[in-house]
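Purpose: get a first structural picture of the assembly so the mutagenesis plan has something to point at.
Setup: two entries, given in the order below. No constraints added.
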Amino acid sequence: MTPTLLVAENVSKRFGTLQANDRINLELRGGEVHALLGQNGAGKSTLVSIITGRFAPDEGRIVIDGRDIPTGDPHASVEHGIATVFQELMLVPSMTGLENIGLALRESANRTLRKRIEAVQTEYTLAAPLDIPVRNLEMPQRQRIALTRALAQKPRVLLLDEPTSLLSPTAVAGFLEKVRELAESGIAILLITHRLDEARTIADRLTVLRHGRNVASHDRSTVPSNSDLAMEMLGVRLVDEIEVSEPQDQRMLVVADLSAVNESKQTVINNVSFEVRAGEIVGIAGVDGNGQFELLEAIAGLRHTGAGRVELEGTDLTALSYRERFERGVKLVSGDRQRHGIIPTFSISDHFEYALGRETLTRLPSVLSDYDVRPSHPRHRGDQLSGGNQQKMIVAAACEQDPKLLLLAYPTRGLDVQASLKLREVLVSHARRGVTILITSSDLEELLSISHRIVVMNRGRIVGTQHREAIDHQQLAEWFTASDDETRGNAA
Amino acid sequence: MSSAPAVPAPALEPPRRGLLRGRGGAWREVGTQVLAFLLSLGVLIGILTALHYDPAQILWALWNGSVGSRPSLGVSASEATPIILTAVAVWLAAQTGLFNIGADGQLQMGGLAAVVTTLYAGLPSTSWVLIPLGLLAATVAGLLWAGIVAVIKVYRGANEIISTLMLNFVAFIIISQLIRGVLQDAANPYTPQSKPIPSGAKINALLSGTQLTWGIIVALVLAFGTIVFVKNTTVGLRLRAIGLNREAARYSGIAIERYWLSSMLISGAICGLAGGLVLLGLRYYIAPGWASPWGYTGILIAFLATRSPYLIPLWGVLFGMLGSAGPVLKGEASVPDSIVTIMQTLPVIVLFLLCVVARRSGGLLAAFGRPKSSSPVEPPAGETAEIARPGAVGV
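Result (structure tokens, whole complex):
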């Protein structure tokens, strides 16, 4: 067996009340590709940040060659041979490849460096132009530059954070082959991803994280089926099911044949149709990045739809803007609080006043206690609340605007167990009063606990629907991972 | 190894609202600005001494030229009027994240409209209607000039920094063509300038022998009124919300485009009014260089006072005094123009340096921006966005 190079032992990290990493163990061997799987918010990025020294763990240690390395010190981890290629690549667009590499290595982009870099490129067959500004390069070439930069540091451990998310399907295959070759040269590679197929294709071992914990580890020979892996990632325990009330008969939302594309013209919502009744909670489930968020955006009117129809209470909304839909009672709440919710420097009461008008302020104290926002002092700054309390505040503001249809994208992202439970109770009580709720989450458990119905999205299509009373986990798992042909078959 | 950061303790003394925001934050801000001014004065004296001027003589000339005599008091006030107005106009637009570099052009178009309407409205030259008409025309002209920018920003997404800046040049060229053409004063055929406005259109001085008019009062009232409005009403809160986090405001259902339009239009209107007040109260006709770069000074002040807008009038008066003292300095202390320019820009540079020092050392930290550890650390998920730095002019 190849020797163990790096061990992360009992690593824990807490942000406020959120336990991002809870006694995680990970072991990397020279010459192996180790895949780290998990949905967004499972704790992958936190673990990577700890290994690269960006954060110090609260507990636990990082061991290389049997010796502890200082934590929380990025230079120390580089010195110990840890190199990282980040998802966003972190290249300066206006600089050439050579300049970018020189920048990282703190060397000037001269002939000596060029020789060395060209040697690295030859050694690993990573040909990419070094003299063209990076912004003029294709994505796979940029990635090669970033990879070359990491390899020029002569790493023993290479961390690849979601490396394929920016690549086209054809480029992905080439890239994975390259990763395989790198591993064979003796480097230990940690591949962070939430794409099951990738992990399955090249990983020698697999570690699955969920809610900041190790859920499972598999050797190449014992990797379970894709659907089992998906269940490990998404979670199925039904520990805290919440009592939900029966939805009303009245039809609230109709989505018919809806399609939309993303910024690079790829289809992200493909011919989606469904109906939701008043007071019904529908959970949109799936592996992250299969069109869930885009669907909510399209219903809210923030994403241009190519074809199809959206109706609310029998009124056609399709031609209406976000604002017009908003005024008719469609409210969207995003889990990206910093970008879509919090106004920096504004107090809690400012957040309510600007969105709802000054009249709200008289009942604000009772609203804050209803939604359990803490500290509940209206003059406390919103951007200084913890993530969970920020989220509760934003949901409270949206709910106080009398929504008919509440669209929630990853509302509990970054929240601790207590806060997300509280939030779910709030949602259920709104549904009881007739509010229709569409919710998407990386966490299947959460969706199962409050949804009347689960619809599964896969590659932009709705591939299946299950009702609360008859959840078949095996079937769900198959839907999550169904390949392209199968999804077409299901949709037909 | 650091232990887990706890949830920030609730503030025992929540920030108050209005004039004195924050726990002494406003006063600290004022203190820093005063410090910047004093420091820049010190630096200036250093420079002058190094250049072998007599600092005492210069300070005396400064005093004399700005407030030391009745006439200079009037000049200070009339210089301060357009500066205060343009500064508050730029500040207002900046609240919604729009950077109105076009204060100068809007002011010039305001002046032009005041001249044209008072001269060609066909009213008797002593009619009392002339002054309100001229000021109204100036306001509308500024509003329309900014309106061009607002419309292409809202409907076409054009960058307002570039369009306002470009329109400054357009305004300049239109005016220089007109005063050589149809507006050319027949009595002065060899100098490009307009006819002087009718006597009834001139705003009388409040003190005889000075240029002190009620324009400065209008400016101060309007400036304070605007600031109080933005700081204390729900509409003002919405304007600021858009400037601080546009996407969040959009999610909350705020009609961003409508607020952009109105803040830009009002900003332009205020600048236009400034031009009208200058023309009817100080210059009386348009000739090349009739408008000093008040609009640009206004931008500087709006920048200086982003976080403490109540200082805008104060800075306006101060810069007005410097403007007024300029010619006296030249005359009495034989100081070149460039020194006057240095005097006007030094406080800005010093203030920015102070900001940098404060950030680095952490000592004056509370005065600028939010404290480093103010918000709980979020996990490094790819989607956690940086919190926009409060106080930066939103561009």
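Chain B touches chain A through 49 residues (CB under 8 Å).
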